[in-house]
C-alpha cells in the first residue's frame, strides 16, 4: 500500500507482480450546475389514472 511492488515467483521465475493502482481524480462536481437544464411537469406527482381505484 505504500507503493512497493510485490513479485511472486515460481521456479525462480517471476509470474505475478502486484503494484498499487493510483487513485483517479474524482470529477469536479458543483451544486446547481444543471440549473435550468431540467424541466418537470406541474402534475408530475399527481396519481396516475390507472391507479386511482387503488387510492380510494
Task: Explain the overall architecture.
The protein is mainly beta and 56 residues long. The protein contains 1 helix and 2 strands. The protein has a two-stranded antiparallel sheet. The protein is elongated. The mean pLDDT is 88.
Which features does this protein show?
2 strands; 1 helix; mainly beta; elongated; 56 residues
By DSSP, the count of extended strands is: 2
Our measurement of the CA-to-CA distance between the termini, rounded to an integer number of angstroms, reads 60 Å
**Uncertain ranges:** none
**Within the largest sheet, what's the order of strands?**
1-2
Q: Helix/strand-derived class? A: mainly beta
Largest sheet: 2 strands, antiparallel
Number of alpha- plus pi-helical segments: 1
- The percentage helix is under 10%
The radius of gyration computed from the alpha-carbon positions, rounded to a whole number of angstroms, is 28 Å
Oligomer status: single chain
| Overall mean pLDDT | 88
Strand content: 15-25%
Order of secondary-structure elements: EEH
Amino acid at each position: 500500500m505504500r507503493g512497493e511492488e510485490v513479485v511472486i515467483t515460481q521456479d525462480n521465475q517471476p509470474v505475478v507482480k502486484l503494484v498499487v493502482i493510483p487513485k483517479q481524480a474524482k470529477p469536479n462536481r458543483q451544486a446547481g450546475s444543471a440549473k435550468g437544464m431540467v424541466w418537470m411537469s406541474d402534475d408530475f406527482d399527481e396519481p396516475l389514472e390507472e391507479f386511482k381505484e387503488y387510492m380510494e
